[in-house]
Each structure stands twice: as structure tokens, then as C-alpha cells.
């Protein structure tokens, strides 16, 4: 008899434990946001969220309002959709809302890197020194020189007339910006004397092409890898690519290069000083490659595409670019050395700046996630008080909450190149409910986890577009073709990508 009671008790414990694990007992407590667990135990809304986070969150916002908690793959996420209340989340101390917990799990899974507690500080220190202020001048110059090699190396040489070349615009933009950015950060093939300079440049071009080719394979697998839903064959391919990159970007190989950026070398050294073993530092190099090169290429694609689709925007940006070049005392001439666009010249382009911000508003879709360390109060901008439960996650999705809000950005789906400019050329402010917004777009995230490469990223995009407009005439092969839709499987990971490429042609302007 006693045995049967013990068996029954164990069974009951297992059943209750499983039900608890699956979320069956979770109830909304007083002052907590509306709770929606969906219909599938444990998974909740995981499938809807993964298939199209943007559509899912719009639906939830219509159903529950500006704050709600949803079950996604065993985790409870509270989404705050009111931009006036964002400050309460992004400014909260790390002892209450921790961004590293979630990021660490992701980084382990997708890059094989095991984070240490000093990583964030190391990234921040290196980025402040090498990607901002004087460091940004150096990095912008390095990007410029590598763009000259990758984009302008054969300027009209040996070609009669001005024939058109054709390519997929996404492939072309991503390829050029990735390769130049990679070389600027990770260094160039060493040279010894001018005789081998040409050879070294040629090597840089072929090597960076190879890196890009492999990177795109990984990039395509990335969203499903991050959600841990890759089928076995793709999982094996992701493992192969990870190992390939750990090797290709290994610390040993990196130090054989010339012109390695301070951003890369100082982070590597700091990790070593903090006791991170070399094989782990190889993996960190791969993490940095993805963070630094996965977004600027797609962003450059969207910007060129919007400019081509909006001739008045193309005209305004081209006039500005031509004017800035003229003021610098340079001119674009056939078969001469390429022009040098400096960081200083990039500070004189308010129209291009507005076009970049508008492109980011339309095509950047990060999701900011923090772990709720213990129960805490959240005061919304409208005065309502909520309790966030310890162990849950709190998340912001600025694309829906701000960037597509017609009250903040009228006709939100339309590209308006001068949306961020006042008629006198100064930067515009944006309002909701009559209150000025601190965050009218949020492509870079915000708070402690804000993208530390944002100033360099903008300069990379601007340099590429600057040179394309100075040197080339461009047009879509089919001018009537619609802008391709966004690939909905990539929400949450930074810049969005199109579902398919679009063909364009380009030829020298002179
Ligand atoms: C259009 C281009 C880019 C976009 C839209 C972008 C966006 C972002 C976003 C949304 C985050 C995460 C913020 C969060 O979790 O709250 C991030 C993190 C990061 N980004 Fe960028 N980024 C871009 C380019 C770059 C570049 C060029 C670099 C470096 C050269 C860079 C380096 C990083 C690093 C290292 C992190 C992780 C920071 C940390 O964990 O402390 N990003 N980026």
C-alpha cells in the first residue's frame, strides 16, 4: 500500500511539475500587464512570433493595448509598445533589467563563444576609442581606402565608351560594403615595397570575396540558428561554417595582416589579459565580424534602392554630394586616382543624413530584450503602474511602436528623403500625444546595449553611397518593378533583408 501511495505521489508531482513547466498555472496577478499564453502549452505564440514578429505584435497591440505579456517558447515576454514609456525600460539599472543574460545565451548558440563578465566593458572601451571621435577619422579613412580598392580599382581601365554593367542590387551593395568594411577592421595583406602593393590589393580583393561568399551562407541560416530550429543538414552546415570562420579569423592569422584596426586588436588583447583562452578569442573574432558586417551592406542596399525609386531624392542627394566634393577642391576625372572622401566631408551632408535616417526607419527592425531580475514596478508615461515579474523578459519593438506610427511619421510606409529635416536644414523633432519624443526611431537599440558601431556604420553607408553617386549612373533594369518585400523571418536581428534581389545597371558617369 505504502508503495502505491509513493508511486501516486511521484506521478502527481511529475504531472504538476510538467503542467507548471508548460505554463498551465500561470495567472495574471493584480497590477500585472494583460497575459496571453496562446493555445499551445510551453510554445505559446512561438510560431506566430518567428514567422512574422511584426505582424504578430501589431495583432497583440490591437488586442491588448500598449503593454502585454505573451508566452513565447517557454519564456514570458512583456512588450511595451508606447514609445513615451521606453525611457523607463532603457534607463533602468542593470541590477533590475539585465540585457546580458539574453545576449549571452544567443552568443553561445550562434557563435560558440562563451561570454565573460568583462566582454561588454571591453567592447565599449574599444568602440569609444576606435569608432568614435579621433578614432572615427582613422576608421573612416581606412574604409575609404578599402572602398577605393574594392569598388574603384579598375575605373574605366581599357574599356571603350561607357558600357553598362548589371548585377543584383542587394548582392552588389552587400558585397562591396562587407568587403571594404572587413578589410578596414581586420587588416590588409602585408606589402613590402610598391612592387607588391598591387599584388597585395589584388589578394585583398579575392580574399574578401571568399569571406563574403562564406559569410552569406551563414547569414542565410542565422535566423533559424538563433531560434534553434535548423533541420539536421543545415545544422551541420552551420557548424562547418562556424569552424571555418574561427579558423579564417583566428588570432594567429589576424596578426599576420597589416593595418589591423585598433578596434579589433585592442579587444583581442583585453580578452587575453582577462584570461580568455586563444581558441575562445578566435570565436570572439567571428562574433565581431557578424556584429560589424551583417547590417551595413543591407542598409546600403535599401538606401540606393530608395534613391533609385525616388528621382527627386536621388537628385537632391547627388547635388549635395557633388557640391561637397567641389568644396573639397577635388573632381572626378576619367582614369585618374580616385577621390578621397574624408570624415570631415561627411559632416556636411544634412540631406544624405536625413535619407539615411529615413532608410533606417523603414528597414531596421531590432528587438530590445532585457531579463527582469526580480519583481519590479514599471510606470508608463500615461501614469499607469504595472508590476513586471522577476524571471520574465521585457521587450521593445521600435519598428511597430515608433517607426511605423502614423501619428509620429505620417504616411509611414512612404520613403521621404527629407523627413528628418526642417525647411531650414536643421534636424526635425517628432511628437506623440503632443509630447516630444526622445526616440523617434531606434535602429541602434538604446541604453547600455546601444550599438557601439553606429557612427562608423553611418559613415560606411554614406561613403559607399557618396562614391556610387559620384562615379556611376544607376538605374533599375525594370523601372516599374516594385520594391521587394521585407523577409519577415529576420525581425529582431537588426537590418532587414529583402525576400529577393532586384536587378540594376550602372556605368561610369564620365
Ligand atoms: C546599419 C548598421 C548597423 C545596425 C542597424 C546596428 C544595430 C545594432 C543593434 C540594434 C545592436 C543591439 C542593441 C541592443 O541589443 O540593444 C547592435 C549591437 C552591436 N553592434 Fe551594431 N549595428 C550596425 C553596425 C555596426 C557596426 C559597423 C559595428 C562595428 C564596427 C557594430 C558593432 C556592434 C557591436 C559590437 C554590438 C554589440 C554590443 C554589445 O553587446 O555591447 N554594429 N548593433
TrEMBL record:
Q: Name its cellular compartments.
A: Endoplasmic reticulum membrane
Q: What is this protein called?
A: Cytochrome P450 family 8 subfamily B member 1
GO MF terms here are: heme binding; iron ion binding; sterol 12-alpha-hydroxylase activity
Provide the cofactor list for this protein. heme
UniProt-listed PANTHER family: 7-ALPHA-HYDROXYCHOLEST-4-EN-3-ONE 12-ALPHA-HYDROXYLASE (PTHR24306:SF0), PTHR24306
Q: Does the keyword Endoplasmic reticulum apply?
A: yes
Question: Which UniProt key words apply to this protein?
Answer: Endoplasmic reticulum, Heme, Iron, Lipid biosynthesis, Lipid metabolism, Membrane, Metal-binding, Signal, Transmembrane, Transmembrane helix
Membrane topology term? Single-pass membrane protein
- Identify the stretch annotated as signal peptide in this record: 1-17
- State where substrate binds: 109, 295, 393
One GO term describing the cellular component: endoplasmic reticulum membrane
Q: Which GO terms describe its biological process?
A: lipid metabolic process
Protein family according to the UniProt entry: Belongs to the cytochrome P450 family.
Q: Where does heme bind?
A: 451
Source organism of this protein record: Crocodylus porosus
Output the superkingdom of the source species: Eukaryota
